[in-house]
C-alpha cells in the first residue's frame, strides 16, 4: 500500500512539473534560464498559476481552472479511477484540489533549467520525491 501511495504522489507531482515545463517550451519569449525564472516568479505572484486567465490589465479570471491544475487533476482522476468507491463524495474533492494545488505550487517553485549539453530540461531537482518534497507536502 505504501508503494502504491508513493507512486500515486510521484505521478501527481511529475505531471505538474511536466505540464509546466512543456508549456514553457512552447513560449517564444522564454529562451534562457533567466526567462524561465522570471516566468515562474510571475506565476507565483498572487497565485497566478491557479487561474485560467489573467487579463492584460492584470485581473485574475477563472480561479482553479488553469491548464496546469486541470492536467494534474486529470492525472489524479485517472490514477484513482476504480481504486475505492468511498472517496467519491463531494467533500473529498477538496483533498484532490488541495493535492493538485500543492503539486502545482511546487512545480512553479522548482528551478527550471536546461542541460547545456543535451538542450533538454534538467530533472535532478524536479523529481517529486519524498527527499525533495516530502516535508513540504505532508500537511496536505
Key descriptive features of the protein:
5 helices, 140 residues, two-stranded antiparallel ribbon, globular, mainly alpha
Structural notes for this entry:
The protein has helices at residues 2-25, 33-44, 67-80, 93-109, 130-137; strands at 51-54, 60-63. The chain is mainly α and 140 residues long. It has a two-stranded antiparallel ribbon with strand order 1-2. Helix 3 (67-80) crosses helix 4 (93-109). The protein starts with a helix and ends with a helix.
* Fraction of helical residues: 40-55%
% residues in beta strands = 5-15%
Main beta-sheet strand count, sense and barrel state: 2 strands, antiparallel
Q: What gross morphology would you assign?
A: globular
Flag low-confidence runs: none
Count of helices?
5
- Return the string of H and E elements: HHEEHHH
Instruction: Give the total of beta strands.
Output: 2
Strand order of the largest sheet: 1-2
- Briefly note the structural class of the backbone: mainly alpha
Distance between the termini: 19 Å
What is the average of the pLDDT values? 76
- Rg over CA atoms, rounded to whole Å, is 16 Å
In short:
54% of the residues lie in helices and 6% in strands.
Helices and strands, with pairings:
Layout: H1 2-25, H2 33-44, E1 51-54, E2 60-63, H3 67-80, H4 93-109, H5 130-137
Antiparallel strand pairs: 1-2
Helix pairs in contact: 1-3, 1-4, 3-4
Amino acid at each position: 500500500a505504501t508503494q502504491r501511495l508513493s507512486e500515486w504522489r510521484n505521478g501527481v507531482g511529475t505531471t505538474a512539473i511536466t505540464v509546466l515545463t512543456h508549456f514553457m517550451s512552447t513560449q517564444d519569449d522564454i529562451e534562457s534560464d533567466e526567462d524561465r525564472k522570471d516566468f515562474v516568479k510571475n506565476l507565483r505572484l498572487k497565485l497566478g498559476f491557479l487561474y485560467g486567465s489573467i487579463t492584460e490589465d492584470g485581473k485574475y479570471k477563472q480561479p482553479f481552472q488553469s491548464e496546469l491544475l486541470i492536467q494534474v487533476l486529470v492525472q489524479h482522476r485517472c490514477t484513482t479511477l476504480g481504486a475505492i468507491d468511498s472517496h467519491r463524495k463531494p467533500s473529498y474533492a477538496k483533498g484532490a484540489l488541495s493535492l493538485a494545488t500543492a503539486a502545482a505550487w511546487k512545480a512553479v517553485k522548482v528551478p527550471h533549467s536546461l542541460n547545456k549539453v543535451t538542450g533538454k530540461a534538467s530533472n535532478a531537482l524536479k523529481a517529486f520525491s519524498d527527499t525533495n518534497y516530502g516535508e513540504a507536502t505532508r500537511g496536505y
